[in-house]
Design goal:
Blueprint lengths: L3 E5 L1 E4 L4 E7 L6 E7 L6 E6 L5 E3 L7 E6 L4 E6 L8 E8 L9 E4 L3 E6 L1
Parallel strand pairs: 2-11
Antiparallel strand pairs: 1-3, 3-8, 4-5, 4-9, 5-6, 7-8, 9-10, 9-11
Length: about 120
């Protein structure tokens, strides 16, 4: 596995913004994604981006979150705007083989970074 090191996150008020970054020595797979897990809930897919920057998003974040990548810097990003308390979760970056929001298709994970939105 290639270590994926996340940074960013933090705490904001309802309607605020947060950014996440995920750095690797190299992107281990063609597809990179962000997943999240809220307390007491299963991990869910948030967004996935291909090497050529095709993107898919979970319906609950469309129009608010943006996933992007810098292949030269081997860095994945997630910009989260118009945040809501329901977005509070541990956010994970991951590398996978297919462009689906299914965690089972991703086998290289970051350590997770907390994002908290207060009302």
């Amino acid at each position: 596995e290639v270590p994926l090191v996340e940074s960013g996150g933090g705490s904001v008020q309802d309607g605020g913004s947060l950014g996440l970054s995920c750095v690797a020595s190299r992107f281990p797979d063609a597809y990179m994604g962000w997943f999240r897990q809220a307390p007491g809930k299963e991990r869910e897919g948030v967004a996935v981006i291909s090497r050529v920057r095709d993107r898919i998003y979970a319906d609950v974040v469309k129009g608010r979150f943006t996933i992007f990548r810098d292949n030269a810097k081997n860095t994945l990003y997630l910009q989260m705007n118009s945040l809501q308390p329901e977005d509070t979760a541990m956010y994970y970056c991951a590398a996978g083989r297919v462009m689906y929001l299914r965690q089972g298709d991703f086998d290289n994970w970051g350590q997770g970074n907390q994002g908290t939105v207060s009302s």
